[in-house]
Amino acid sequence: MNTVIIGGLKLLIGFPFPIILALMINEVRQIFFKRTVQTISYLPHFFSWVIIAGLTFDILSAGGIVNEIRSWFGADPILFMQKAGYFRFIVVLTGIWKEAGWGTIVLLAALSGINPQLYEAATVDGAGRFKQMWFITLPLLMPTVVILFLLNIGSFLDIGFEQVYNLLTPMTYEVGDIIDTYVYRAGIVEGQYSLSTAIGIFQSVIGLVLIVSCNKLSKKVSGEGLW
Amino acid sequence: MQQLKLGEKSFQAVNVLLLVLFSIVMLLPLLSVAATSISSGLAVDRGEVQFWPVNVTLASWEQILSQKSLWLSMLVNTAATVIGTFICMVVSSLTAYPLSKSEFKPAKFIILLVVFAMIFKAPIIPYFLTLKSYGLYNSFWALVIPHTIVAYNLIILLTFFKQVPKELEEAGKIEGCGYFQTLFRIVLPISMPALVTVGLFYAVMIWNQFMHPIMFIDNPHLYPLQMKLRELITVTDLTSLASTFQDRTLINERTLRSATVLFAAIPILLVYPFLQKHFVKGAMLGSLKE
Question: Which of A68, B33, B78, B124 would be a feasible disulfide site paired with B258, CB 3.0-4.6 Å?
Fold first, then answer.
């Protein structure tokens, strides 16, 4: 159940983020600034989850910067990592922090492929920046977005063992234990092979069914598909 | 016309401002941890350290760097990465090359299998049992062998090999090259950009791997860096290390933890400019196929 909720949150919040970011980066005209933003935002992609979990634990700890900033406004410190209520959002946020910048690469490549004459024509017709974005950039970006979305759906249940395992503490098992971490504990640590195999196969089959059926659906609706 | 320009300008300004904010948020955690790692424990305890170090001291760093086991795991990691990347590159390119040839009839079927393996993830337990039965449990090779072929990388290479002009290979054949000579003397040198990219993909993956070590490695002497790191970060360990110090004004758990995290991040930071350039290329090559 946790798997479905966290997967859903990730899809809902995490998926649009790179798109917005890519649109913003695409509008920047100063090359140097653009490069800098890209360089910074790709960086976390190369860190392992252990490093990122270490960072997360530190900045969210009692004396970490998040609580320090809260204290400027007179709020009491919160031990975020030990509170069940925050766990899922921390998973989503760290996911965004790590991968959002990286996710923009493919989108930016698609954006740079848009014919500049279209924008010129729109400017002549009196469209401002927002209108250009809405009527030209977005529709032309749609095919790429659809494909990325399909790939995301396929890995909907595959949240990332490394991320959750490293962020999880016994206090947050109840809300954060996903299929992968459960299978790891039950299967490899405790040796209940048959039970955890069954769960694992179930997960893989669901993933496969999801991606195949979504692909069919999207082919019908938009004509775009993975294969 | 004037109005439009004004709108344009404010749009740009807001956009740049938001992106600057975003970049700052991306960098803050790193900055804060860096500051903590070189500050004195006392200042950290008092909550004085935010983004700028207070009472700069390298005590935590000295402590971390004198941990023999950390260097050992660094060595294990480096060895696995170098050996692993080499094996991966040899096997992947030898596999991708025949698959890129249309004369090779079963290629289509094999590629289909590869793509299937990419979408359908093997459940953890059967995977674990299979590899265990190969004798990889608690073996250094568990850090290397399972990564030998990654479907995604294979497809990047495949796509690239297909673009190599046929004429070149034919010219080679006329000069008397066999299949292997054609591959090593003509196709591979031409494909250097793709090879570098895929090699880096493999290297970073092996360097950062966590799932395989945690499943297969039980022996502390074989812990790769990420596992060692996790062991150190888990609070109990550092607390005991920190408590061996009488002088809590210099070192505490948080400065130690920050130094450890940063220590593990430094190798990546060092090669980052190089990585970025090639990874972006690789991400685009991979997306072409889709």
Answer: B33
For residue range B82-104, list pLDDT tens digits in order. 898 999 888 888 888 888 887 78
Q: For residue range A102-144, list pLDDT tens digits in order.
A: 788 878 878 877 777 888 888 788 777 777 778 888 888 887 7
Task: Determine contact, residues A47/B225, Cβ cutoff 8 Å.
Answer: no
| Position B289 pLDDT exceeds 50 | no
A190, pLDDT greater than 70: yes
Query: Within 13 Å, how many C-alpha atoms sit on residue B284's CB side?
Result: 16
* Residue A114 exposed, middle or buried by CB count within 10 Å (0-12, 13-18, 19+): middle
| CB-nearest partner of B258 from A58, A130, A226 | A58
Alpha-carbon gap, residue B9 to B29, rounded angstroms: 32
Report the distance separating Cα A224 and Cα B84, nearest Å: 37
- The minimal CB distance from A50 to the residues B12, B18, B210 is found for B210
If you search the block for the tokens 């809300």, which residue do you land on? A175
Residue in B235, B262, B223 with CA at minimum distance from that of residue B70: B223
What is each CA distance from B37 to A147, B53, B56, in whole angstroms?
Answer: 43, 8, 9
Q: Which of A68, A129, A200 sits opposite B8 (nearest CB)?
A: A129
Nearest CA in chain B to A24: B15
Task: Assign 3-class secondary structure to A125-142.
Answer: CCCCHHHHHHHHHHHHHH
Phi/psi at A124 (nearest 5 deg)? Answer: -60, -40
Higher pLDDT, B16 or B45: B16
Selected residue of A27, A28, A45, A58 to mutate for chain B interface (largest B Cβ count, 10 A): A58
H helices of chain A, where? 2-9, 16-27, 31-42, 49-59, 65-72, 84-112, 116-124, 129-132, 138-154, 161-167, 173-176, 179-183, 193-222
Identify which of A74, A215, A73 has the alpha carbon closest to the alpha carbon of residue A151. Answer: A215
Measured between beta carbons, the chain B residues lying within 8 angstroms of A36 are 23
Q: Decide if B18 and A207 are in contact by the 8 Å CB cutoff.
A: no
Confidence of residue A155 (pLDDT cuts 50, 70, 90): low
ipTM of the complex as predicted: 0.75
What is the least distance, in Å, from the CA of B169 to any CA of chain A? 30
Q: For A227, which residue in chain B has the nearest alpha carbon? A: B290
